[in-house]
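# nightly structure sweep
# worker-07 picked up a monomer target from the shared queue
# config: single-sequence mode, recycle default, output format = structure tokens
# input follows
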Amino acid sequence: MFNKRFHFIDRPLSTNIQSWNNVLNKAIAKFDKGTLFIFGYTANPAKVTRGKKGLKAVQNFHEKLLLFVKN
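# output follows
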């Protein structure tokens, strides 16, 4: 999971950003608001964990990225 860092997107291995968002949707629906998620790739090592708000921020980034590359 990336936190405020540009994602490594491995196209030859069939990376699918929309699929990532589908997984994030499932995690947001399944876990309660007190759940902490571990972000392995972060710009700030002190911010390795985030809550649902962090997952939603990643989703928002993905959505904006997909719009950008389509245009």
